Every structure is written in C-alpha cells, then in structure tokens.
Amino acid sequence: MLVDATRTAVPHPLDPLSASEINQIVALLRQHADVATGVCFHSMQAIEPDKVELAAYEEEKRPFPRRALAILLDKQTGRTYEAIVNLDHNQVESLSHIPGVKPGVLLEEMEEAEAVIKANPEFQAALRRRGITDFERVSVDPWAPGYYGDPLEDKHRLSRGVPYLNEQIGDNFYARPIENLLVLIDINKMEVVRVDDFAPVPVPQESADFLTGLKPRTDVKPLEITQPEGVSFTVDGWQIRWQKWQMRISFNHREGLVLHQVGYEDNGRLRPILHRISLAEMTVPYGDPGLSQYRKNAFDAGEYGLGMLTNSLELGCDCLGEIYYFDADLVTINGQVRTIKNAICLHEEDASLLWKHVDVRAKGVAVRRSRRLVVSFIATVGNYEYGFYWCFYQDGNIQLDVRLTGILQTGAYVEGDVPRFGARLNGRLYAPNHQHFFCVRLHTAVDGPRNTVVETDTLAAPADESNPHGNAFYAQTTLLRREQTAQRLIDPFAARTWSITNPNSLNKVGQPVAYKLIPGENSLPFAQPHAYISQRAGYMFKHLWVTPYHPNEKYPGGAYPYQSPGGNGLPQWTAQDRSVDNEDIVVWYVMGHTHVPRLEDWPVMPVATIGFWLKPSGFFAQSPAMDVPASLPHHCHIPEQ
Ligand code: NI
User: Among 99, 247, 429, 631, fewest CB within 10 Å belongs to which?
Assistant: First the structure.
C-alpha cells in the first residue's frame, strides 16, 4: 500500500523542513530585533538528532525538539549569520555573526548577476571590440570565483562571469565561448568590480545546436515498464520500506538527497547499516592554465547547492515505470517557499540476474531475477547535469551510481594551434581537461552505533615451503585505528577494499560483522599540492578518510568554501588524530572522475558513470537473497525461429 506523503502534523526528527515550517522560521527571524530589515535568506535545514538522541526518541519516546539552522546574509554589511530557531517554542534561540565567511551563490543572484554584467558599459565595449553588438545574444555563466590571494577577494563576495555568444537565443552557446573576457561582479552590491579584457580570440562559429535539424531514428519501438499489481514499496511521510529494506530520506539546499537509518530486516530483526549518507561535497578542478580557464574549479555542493539546483523530474523521461515522487521545499532569497515538484524519484527496477544454478545431472534449473530499489535526484550545475542514484538490492548490496551528462565546458583557440590542456571539438573550439571529485559522507551504524574500519589487501604468498606450488594468495587485514592512519588510497593491484566492521557483533564464524566498501573508478588530483585549489579541497588527495562523528564536521571542504582559502575540512580535523576504533565513526569516500574530453562528448555528453558499492561481508550468516521468489515464465513477441 502506498501512503500519501502529505506531511503529518508532528514531523519525524529526520524529516526535512516543510513549507509551513519554512514560513514559521522566516516570520520569527523577520520579527527578531537583531535581524536587519532586508536581510537575505540563504538556506535553512532541520537540526537532526545524533544517534543517542534518535534512539531515545524512538525507543523511549523522548521528544526531540524541532529546531532549524538558518543561514542569513546581510548584503549591506556583507555579514553572514547563523540562527538557531526552535519551532516548538516559536522562538529564535540564537543569532551569531560568523566572521570571515561568505555563503554560496543563490539562484536569484546568478540571474541578477548575468543581467547586470550584460548591461555593463565596459563589458559591452569589450564585446564591441570583438565585433559583437547584439548583446541579447550574449549569455554569461556566473562562476564561483575561487580563491587566488587577490585582496579583492577579501573585500567582496564575488562571482566571475564567463561569457558566450548564442547563434540564436536558446541554442547551445557553449559552442561560442568569448575567450579571454571575464567579469568580476560583487554579488552583494550587484556591481561590476572589474572587467578582464585580455587578447581577443575569434569566437568559434560552428553550430552545435542539438534540439533542431537532426532526423530522429525511426526504428525505436515502445518499451513499457508496468507493475500491474502496483509497486512493492510503501511510503509513509519520508519513510520508505521495500521488501527487507527500510530507510528514511530528507532533502536540503546543499546536499540534495540525504538517506537516514538505512537498515535490513534479517530474520524478523531490523539491523541498522547506515545512520546517514549523502554527497557532502563535489569539486571540479579544470586543468588548463588559460586565462579564461584556470579559475574554473567549482565546489558544486558547498559553493552552489545540489539541492538548490535540483531538477523537477518528468515521468517517462527521467524515470521509467511506476514512480513515486517526493517534492522538496526550500527557502528563496526573499523568504518565500520554493517547491521543487518531483525532486526525488523512487522506483523499482529489474536488475538482470540475481542468482542461478543449473543441475546438469538432474536437468534442474534454479534462477532468480534481481530487482533494485532506486532513490535518485538530478542537479543541473551550469553546463553539467549530475544524477545521483542510490540503489538497494535484494542480496543486501548498496550501490551509489553517479551519472554525469550535460555540455562540456569549452574554450576558443586560435585556428592552427593545438591546445595542450584540452581536446579539440572543431577547428576553433576545444574542451579543457578537468576532473570531478565526489565526497560521500557515510555516517555508519553497522549492527550498532560503534564501528571500526578494516583495510583488506590481497597478497601473493611468498614462494616458500608453505606455498610449494606457487599458487597461494591470502587476504591481509589492517585495522585503521586512528585518523592519521585511516587516510588511504585505492590499490587495485591488491584488490583493496575497506570493511566497516562492528567488533561488538560477531557473525556465524566468530568474526565482526561487516559491510565492505568496494571502490569503482577513481583517480587522484593532477593539480599541484601547492595550487590554491589543492589547499581549498585537500580532501581530494585521499580516497578514504575516517573520523569520529562530530556534529560540526559535515562538509569535507569546510562549512563555507565560497572564496575560502581553505584550512577547514578533513585534512585539518584529522590532524587531531582521534581514535576511530570502535567509535561512532564517519567514513568519507572520495572518488575522482578524470575527464579528458572526446569528440563523442559533444554536443551533449552521453552519461559517464562513477560510483562504488557497499556489500555485506560476513554481515549475514549466508546469502540473504535465497528467499527471493522465482519469476513466472513470460511469453515474448519475437516469432519462434
Ligand atoms: Ni567532465
């Protein structure tokens, strides 16, 4: 049965803020004596209980106060504030000025910045010098400016406008970058600070419009996914149950989708696996020293907001089959509620084979099809789209499948040159090399609140008397006891994995129960360690980090990465070298997709994927998928041979 997600009167402590709660918070802050008139609302989210508070709420029915953290920006003074609002008591508990920080850019600011830049006389003069007089055809992408030690960066909250020329309004303007022209704009005052007009490069002319002109192929027959008896999941508010899986979800401005309390029912007992998981940060550093290119290195979560940039999904296009959608409510800069319809997609998918065996002698066949539950959202960050799909399987596996698509970032080059730091798309247009780093925050709860991470390498046994035939190899495990030693890299030659174990819960053969993290594609940053971006996103330099849970350690590149010089994030926290052995731990997995563009990535990139798996490893006593029923044989429409 599917229960409508209409919000219940009393929200669960892990529920995201509802529209009425956002309205209540805005009203309370507007009435507050220390909140200046005209202050801007950046973002807000519910303050979540920790594991102990959540257990007390669920097991002892101890109430958990409904509170929210709101980030406010006073554009007159440039000051950033954090307010704690108590919704139960209808009061602002605290309002603190956070010195020296700048919150990320907002949707409304991006739109306004583009209009102000386009109307700027100095920018228009630079366009005229390039023979561009129809300013309506100019589009400007507002980039987070990064940090490069320029005194201007301390004085202003900036955006850096990168201009393009449309052939016609609404077409693919990335085909026509206006190279070496950049505009720094103060997005608090909405005033242009500086126009950087370097040596003009002729604007490429070859069209890359992908919406018109191409004749669609005609041999694609309909493919329908139907579930005539309905779906096999249930939704109650923000709680999801599917076969033996249970979880809650929420959504916020920065991370987008968050999953909470992920557990699996094993012999009638719900066993916790993950307390909270999300995509906590993303950094996309470009590897081209060109004047228009070298500052491109956005933190897509911390400097923009994956939630803020989330798409409204469309049935049959983004998601196929029997879909349940969740809407998301966010605050606007002016304190209104913005509802993203169909922000989160929930559905079941056939996932090919689950298990099979043919008994050749008895001519018996046992086969089961696999099915997975997919919870997903898609964010558009400028030229790129990112789809994040959390998949849950009947054998206890969990997979994060990230899909990258959209349009390449581009640059113009002088005809006859060969760009060294990018790939040519035509005789004057190229796409700079870049990387996408994703940091997934896994607050684990494998069979209980305290866990330990163990690294497993597979090693060849030495050719001694214990290995007389030279064929032997074994798994070697190393406990990662402290933060400094729990900073690890992948090692595909050792088939390296990391197990999140619970030393307090032993399995059938007396070992700690575990879920193991199996890396997928990965790489390391190519930026030099002293580069500004490496200082700011130091988390990129290790694939695995483990920290003890601390409520203030949520974002691996720091809480306020916008124009930040760095110095607050995983490398700094872990300098304390705290114990992570049998503690309430957070596992941070970092994966880097290195993108040397191809001609086939143009004009719209077919999806590239990156991800990882979490698989039970001695968590269950045997395969938990043995009770999956056999499917009924189907007829098909292909004539018999
Ligand atoms: Ni890319």
Answer: 99
Compute the distance from residue 351 Cα to the ligand 1 centre, in Å.
27
Q: In angstroms, what is the span from residue 562 Cα to ligand 1's centroid?
A: 21
H or E stretch at 570: helix 570-573
In what helix (H) or strand (E) does residue 385 lie, and over which residues does it extend?
strand 384-393
CB atoms closer than 10 angstroms to residue 263: 18
Helix (H) or strand (E) holding 53: helix 51-59
User: Is the preceding omega at residue 556 within 30 degrees of 0, hence cis?
Assistant: no
148 CA from centroid of ligand 1 (Å): 23
Q: How far apart are CA 337 and CA 202, in angstroms?
A: 44
What is the percent of the chain where pLDDT is above 70? 98
Contact of 409 with 286, CB cutoff 8 Å: yes
174 flagged as catalytic: no
Ligand 1 centre to CA of 103 (Å) is: 25
Cβ within 8 Å of residue 364, ≥6 positions away: 358
Q: Domains of the chain: which residue ranges?
A: 19-97, 107-197, 233-634
pLDDT (tens digit per residue) in 77-93: 999 999 999 999 999 99
CA gap 538, 559 in Å, rounded: 14
What tokens were used for 55?
């257990």
User: Nearest Cα to 345, choosing from 403, 414, 282?
Assistant: 403
| 328 within 8 A of 255, measured Cβ to Cβ | no
Q: Domain 19-97 class?
A: alpha beta
Radius of gyration of the CA atoms of the chain, in A: 26
Q: In this predicted model, what pLDDT tens digit does every residue of 8-59 receive, in sequence order?
A: 578 999 999 999 999 999 999 999 999 989 899 999 999 999 999 999 999 9
Topology of the domain comprising 107-197: Nuclear Transport Factor 2; Chain: A, (3.10.450)
- pLDDT tens per residue, range 201-235: 999 999 998 887 788 999 999 999 999 999 999 99
Distance CA(48)–CA(252), nearest Å, equals 12
At 547, which amino acid appears? T
- State yes or no: pLDDT of 589 exceeds 90: yes
Six-digit token pair at 75? 């554009």
Q: Which of 384, 389, 515, 560 is catalytic?
A: 384
Selecting among 15, 171, 288, 300, the annotated active-site residue is: 300
Q: Pull the structure tokens for residue 158.
A: 């900036």
* Confidence band for 640, pLDDT divided at 50, 70 and 90: low
Could you tell me the distance, in angstroms and rounded to a whole number, from the CA of residue 532 to the centre of ligand 1?
Answer: 20
Tell me, what's the pLDDT at 2? 47
- Residue 422 contacts residue 433 (beta carbons within 8 Å): yes
Burial call 176-193: b when 16+ CB within 10 Å, e when fewer: bbbbbbbbbbbbbeeebe
pLDDT above 50 (res 616): yes
Q: For residues 273 and 284, is the Cβ–Cβ distance under 8 A?
A: no
CATH class in words for 233-634? mainly beta
Tell me if 19-97 shares its fold with 107-197.
yes
Give the Å distance between the CA of 581 and the centre of ligand 1.
37
pLDDT at 1 over 90: no
Residue 315 CB neighbours (<10 A): 14
Structure tokens at 330: 């966010």
Q: Which residues, at least 6 apart from 263, have a Cβ–Cβ distance to it below 8 Å?
A: 245, 246, 247, 270, 271, 272, 273
Distance from the CA of 313 to the center of ligand 1, in angstroms? Answer: 22
